[in-house]
Amino acid sequence: MEKQALVFVLLLVAMAGVFVLLWRIGAAMAQKALDNLRVLAGRLKISVVEKPKKFGVHPPPEAVGFVRGKQVRLFNYTTGTGKSKTTWSAIAVTPAVASGLSFELLPQGFGSKVLELFGARELQVGDAAFDKKWFVRCNQPAFFAAALLPEIRQKIMGSAAGRWKLQEGIVTYSELGLFSDAARCERFTALADVACDLADLAEVFARRQT
Question: Which residues 6+ apart lie within 8 Å of 166 measured at CB?
Answer without folding.
Answer: 101, 102, 103, 104, 172, 198, 202
